[in-house]
Design brief:
Chain B: Pfam families: PhnH. Chain B: Keywords: Lyase. The complex is a heterotrimer of chains A (about 130), B (about 190) and C (about 350). Chain A has one domain. Chain A is of the alpha+beta class and about 130 residues long. Chain A is built from 4 helices and 3 strands. Chain B is α/β, with parallel strands linked by helices and about 190 residues long. In chain B, about 25% of the residues lie in helices and about 20% in strands. In chain B, a hairpin with a 2-residue loop joins strand 9 and strand 10. Classes of the chains: A alpha+beta (about 130), B alpha/beta (about 190), C alpha+beta (about 350). Strand 1 of chain A pairs parallel with strand 2 of chain C, so a sheet runs across the interface.
Amino acid sequence: MAILAKAPPARLAELLPDLAAHAVLRAPETGAVMVRGRTGGTGAPFNLGEMTVTRCSVRLDCGAVGHAWVQGRDKAHATRAALADSLMQTDAAPRIRAMVLEVLAAEAKAARTARAGKAAATRVDFFTLVRGED
Amino acid sequence: MQAQSLTGGFADAPVESARAFRAILEAMARPGTIRRVEGAAPPAPLSPAAGVALLVLADPTTPLFLAGAVDCPAVRDWVAFHIGAPLAGAEEAAFAVGTWADLQPVTRFRIGQPDYPDRSATLIVEADRLEADGPRLTGPGIREAARLSLPETAAFQANRALFPLGWDCILTCGDRLAALPRSTRLEDA
Amino acid sequence: MYVAVKGGERAIDNAHAWLAEERRGDPAVPELTVAQIREQMRLAVNRVMAEGSLYDPDLAALAIKQSRGDLIEAVFLIRAYRTTLPRLGASQPVDTAAMAVDRRVSATFKDLPGGQVLGPTFDYTHRLLDFKLAAEGEVAAAPTQDTIPEPVPHVTGFLNRDGLIEAEPRDDTAPPDLTREPLELPAARPLRLQALARGDEGFVLSLAYSTQRGYGRTHAFVGELRIGRVAVEVDIPELGFAVEIGEVELTECETVNQFKGSKTEPPQFTRGYGLVFGQSERKSIAMSLVDRALRWKELGEDFTGAPAQDEEFVLYHCDNIQATGFLEHIKLPHYVDFQAELELVRRLRAEAAAAVQEAAE
């Protein structure tokens, strides 16, 4: 679910173009989730601010149920993520895992690594010029 | 989560919840009037009207107390999926659902504080019958007097005596509901 | 006294039409897209998200476009929009120690695990206008360096080991929410941090600066400043467990403050905390200074009368939407109450003149 939620919506649509026949248990609904932090990073929780979230739940004809909660306001993204989640409860699971989830996970990892590489290039290497006499 | 808990919410939430909210608002504004509501099909023993009231009024920020028979796995799951209200004890609840007998003692529910009388509970009372007979109601929103089949009179009179504090009440029966805000005065029939 | 008046409808419609035209500017110049604002005005987008208290870069960019770049107006649009959203729940507190950092610096420790990572910063630029930007041109890709991601622990953790800095023991009390309940004083620290996180950057900056200049001085150093992305996890009721539903960019600042000890606390370093949506380091540093100044009571310090120590002053005035709403309402018609004032002044003047005349006679 996390991989589907964090996938770029357009990329998910490319990888999973067809929507399987399904009944809607909860139509895509956009709302807000309050994001919390902790005082000092580790202490008591506090409310930082909200983020937009869209959720959706579907049921396939075979009875498999899928849920999605995705960041943002893209209803097609939420529907597609819920469908992929429901397909993961069926015989199609290995195919979805290989053709959708693993591809998305690899792309997310590559994007993260690329950004970490740029950050690493700005890491400071200190060298001592003159140490004060003591 | 059982499959039956995933159905029975509003099919067209914006429209259905707006209509149901209007019905509840009108019921609260005109104590004693009985209105029909639709759109919810919650698992037994929760009535459709109580289901509608919860869908419209409760959310993840309103602690909910399930009293007696409605405190069952099917209803708990239905609430979790469709409403997300955290289940809580009677003393912390913003909403409480159950039969009048199961809600006793009603003196344990929140009545608000003098500076925030709105921090009080709303009781959703499941009734076997709901008719325009019984104790005589007077007060804001009632032209002359109204009558409503209430489970008792004394507890509502005691609640009225707390005004502006006190809890409010929605009575549900099948797909019909009526309301009794804390401002209504009661006299035995 | 307020009196309802009618009229001006045509004038208002025409004013709105002209506003739309002015917003567009010269039609010979290509129109900005929301995506362009989101990508190229990102720090403005961040500010609107932080003070609008809603993380959604596309919405913030749209608000900036609609408000013609008036960021407080954009914040207003976002605040109005967020009231239309159902609250679906609250996240698990984000784990900033697990942040994928773009930037992470410490002013107190030179050598620290994870290193000093400058990130895309304005620091060390010469603040000279770059006229190359006036001409459009491609930008070369930033250099990268192969790296094996290593943990980037919080700097304050090192000091904690020696007991030289106050601890922040974990606590799981549900925090108060000022978007749901009116602000009541005294406010607990979680409520203060929520108010500061959505507070006006300029106001919080000035208050923080006032503490540095001596009005409630706390001798702050930036123990650590980090910017990056953290996962947001939410308990999904239908599943019964927490799932990552997305990522937000955050700026976190922890200050290390000198503290001589008080009647209740031993001498040690104390902490101020700032956490803000987006890359907003000025705001997060300012927030942590003001947070520290407001903690005088729990640390047993003296109240010196400094504005930054005064929780009512800070919390009731840091919200720019409340402030601008009250400020700007005085330009709306007040014809009748001004008439009353006018009559009062005339009467007082007449009385004063009569008194002068009487004294002269």
